Amino acid sequence: MKRVITVVVIMAVSLSYLACSKGDRKSPELSKSDTGIYKEESAEKIISAYDLLDVFHKNKVQAEKTYTGKSVEVSGVVTYKGPDIHSLPSIELSDSKTGSSYVLCVFPSYDSMNKLSVGDKVSVSGEFHILGTDDWVVLKQCRII
Fold it and tell me: Is 71 in contact with 104 (CB distance < 8 Å)?
């Protein structure tokens, strides 16, 4: 009888330990329209330029709450390289070389984007700034990743 009680107690402790340890793990959830690439366990993702703009089209208020003041990693094809309307170094990203631009990435200097050319596929990290009146997502302090 003592052995049975000991085995039951050990099993109960083991099961409760397993249940607790599983609760600490967070698995990323992908939505149907999510084409981002998950990295290791951090669940940070790279989102395409088109998909990032689409998030704002679907629910601008929620998207601004989600992204304001946060770093965003976005990928796309460079459709323009040069100064933006404020003469700051920037690139525009689309889903294709001849497609419409969806994201404006502003860099701290031209040196940080020297190696890029129109038509290059690139991933960029930058801080979300605004959804511009021209219907572009604007990222500042960008860097190539």
Answer: no
